[in-house]
Amino acid sequence: MVVKDQPLKAVCEILEKEYGIHFSYSRELVDLSRKVTVTAYQQRLKSLLEQLFAPDDIRFTRVGDQLVLQQVKRTTRTISGYVQDAVSGEKLPGATIYAPTLKQGTTTNQYGFFSLTTVKDTNSLIVSYVGYEPALLPVEGQANRILLVPLEPLASLQEVVVSATDKTKLQDQTQMSRVHLPLAAVQSMPKLLGEADVMRTLQSMPGVGGGMDGAGGLHVRGGSPDQNLILMDGTPVFNFSHFFGVYSLLNAEVVKSADLYKGAFPARFGGRLSSVVDISLKDGDMRHYHGDVAIGMISAKFNVEGPIIKDKTSFIVSARRSYPDLLYNATLRTDGDFGRAGSLYAYFYDVNAKINHIFSAKDRIYLSIYKGEDNLMVRSVPDTALPDAAGRVTESSRFQLGWGNTIGGLRWNHIYNTRLFSNVSVNYSQYAFRTEYNFKSKMPATGQASDLYGKYFSRMKNLGLKADFDFRPSPDHSFRFGAAVTAHYFKPGLMDMSDKGATPVTPLDTGKYGLDIRGTEMLLYVEDDWRLTENLYANLGVHTSGFLVEGRFYYSLQPRIGLRYMLPRNWAVKASYTHMNQYIHLLSSAGTSLPTDVWVPSTQRVAPMYSRQVAAGIAKTSMNNAFEFTLEGYYKTMYNMIEYSNNNTAITENLERWDENVVIGKGWSYGGEAMIKKQKGSTTGWVGYTLAWSTRQFPDINRGHIFPYKYDHRHDVEIVLTQRIGRRWEASASWHYTTGAPLTLPVSSYQGAGTPSPWDPGNGGDVSLDRYDGRYNYRAADVHRLDVGITYSKQKKRWRKSWNLSVYNVYNQKNPFLYYMKRDPEEKQRYLSKVTVMPILPSITYSIKF
Q1: pLDDT tens-digit map of 484-499
Q2: What single Pfam family name could you report for this chain, choosing any that match (predicted)?
Q3: Whole-prediction pTM value?
């Protein structure tokens, strides 16, 4: 007998005809609506009936020539606790807990906690996590206790074999548009300058871009970098890059896992339009001291972790420091000359520390601190200019740029009972940048001298309090609810310029002061993962928030809906609708994103941004868990987008009246994403493709017509492969291709007298006055790049050593960083030139783990 996706009632009717029996039952007491798929050949009737009726707790009794059906209500019990690493005690988020007899299960939350209500006669549960040996958990007598479930890690990454129970399959997750990234996936990617990188790995996913080579930022489904909510252990981060995006803010060795939401946002997240990147950091080993040290070509790092009080208190400390090198100086080049001769001095550092303390089986506390900073200085040596009537002029200049983050968080986990878990947190986040410029000139013959000095400073900081609750009353429901309040402080900008060479010192411009602005944001949310029927699941939620600024109160009600329907052969159809709101904006130039972009809040004139996004797709994980396939389409509309009415930047505008220099409009992003991933065997990796559009419309720009925006990349292809070679070698390669981004270029120009541009020193004092016809009227060259890497590892008695050789941009593709107009002094013509900053970059890194 073969039956596909039919109700139990229909199966019973078939059995009545084939076996000559009759089922007797009360329709009010026995539910036979569940759809089943049955394949049975030469199977005993009794075993077939047990297979059909057991999941619904239906018992059958033979009375004469009838089978009497009764639906029995079994008593239930709740099993809860933490899943952790058996060696270190590290809690494991996203671990799977599964009851095979009931075909039901759950996963641990961000803190490793789980709660599963099962029938009383369930004997055991299967607990599994990627990279760990699955464990069988006996549950007899374990109700009303908080369990600690240890999982043994596999010996090495080279021995990881993903089994069918290692992770929740895509078709079993109601959540769509989500990417889960364990540390192993980050470490296996090709390394730029020897560094594994979380954000660069996320950029290799469909629907996610990182902009031009050498530029920081994350562009998700046509959104801008400021539309991404990046959380580090629950604390928001406002700039997540070092070295203009070459490195991420965090040392990858302290990252436990990362989750990227591109859409279908759960109600617990809010405040951004395009994505959520939720990063969980390691808590520290509770039982053993260990760490690692790595030395690369331009940076070095170390990590150490261990117990302060064994099985009670642990710590983890990580630090990195880059150092200037001729290699980096060689990467800064153009297709022509780059100003006067001089030097480049650049470095970054970051320190991350975390303490984890267990007060009791029900209470634990986490304290985490982060401090990181970048510094860049470009200095030209004294240079003698061409002689003039008065003699010779010596000139020198110095430009400094610095930016950094200071982050702190305190979290308290508490278990009220086996079904209710809470996390209360206090967090602080500050982002600041500064620039300084000094230009000196001296004419010895006349004694005339000039010492121009300018500085610019901006800062933003947040202080927040949040309470989150996780309530799991039954396998069919999983509630999350919570509330938060955040105090925002903005110092958009302070500019000061003077001539220190004049007597007395002459202030040139002290009027560009940004206002000190304070705002308060409040939110409430509730969401429920709900099993509606045997094949239909939903994630329903609502996020409501308000923002008080300058005496005005903005509020928003944001519904979230996610649906999943199971099709035959374990295919899942998913759909979602999300409404998102954002109260802060990033003032950016029309070019690439830089650390000098300024954060500002909504004002009386500029209302909060908000978006509505719908998405639909299909997903499936193969039976042996070797392959995953996803296909999604989305359409997003964005409102209250801002853009400078001209092509200026925050530094060139008076930030005290910044909202008078922007226009407000709408945006659209839509497209499709496909991905196939191989995650089992010696060869793993994925292929992703994105077809996307991103457009904007402003009443006072481009004559009010819709135009492609700077994040509009029509086609994007990502191919990532990892090959294990024996027990000690691992090779990886990634190839990236994306359509060029739109640019705004003049359509005509005419010459006039003026000061030569530093980008165009050969114009003899003539300047070009440009005429523009619309915004983003030109498309840059396509970007593509191949990166490769190979790692050799060997286990010693007490430590493990590894060598990594990586090559970034193997075939030395000259991808653009920025474009500018250059003039040929002989031909008296201008042409488009580009700056490239990331040529072929080989790197070698030596590391030891002890």
Answers
A1: 999 999 887 766 666 6
A2: Plug
A3: 0.82
